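User: My collaborator sent over this chain with a note saying "see what the structure looks like." That's all I know about it. Can you take a look?
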Amino acid sequence: MRYLLPHCFKKTGLYITPIGFIIWVLMQYGYVTKLLTHIFGQDNPPTNYVEYYWQNVFIAVISFLSFLFGLYFIAFSKEKIEDEMVQKTRMESFQFAAVLQLLLFIVGFVAMLILGEPEGDGILGFMVLSVLVFWLAFVTRFHYKISRP
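Assistant: Without extra context I'll predict from the sequence alone. Here is the result:
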């Protein structure tokens, strides 16, 4: 494949993926906000809600993007030995992830048809979940198949 990253990006991805994911999850539960309030000594509740809101959005976006870029680095980095077997396994894993995501879409939309449209940001959450399932399934299956003797 012509568009693969050098192998050294895989190690970078292995570092930033879990860090970005953990910070993003902690942000969703409000722990990062409490930590920032404690570090910067802001009033509780803060007096300037607009600035406070944008700090939280900035941290959430950066952490989620670092998680996605880490997954990208892991998925599209060359292996130490890049041969035909690795390329075939990469393509099969990609196809497996695509079929899994398609099944998730079908089940999800049928469930929405039967149960009704989810409240709030349910559809957005479903779309984010489907993207994550695709990339996590691809990376997991690819590395499982490569590591098997």
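A starting point for your reply to your collaborator: Residues 1-78 form one domain.
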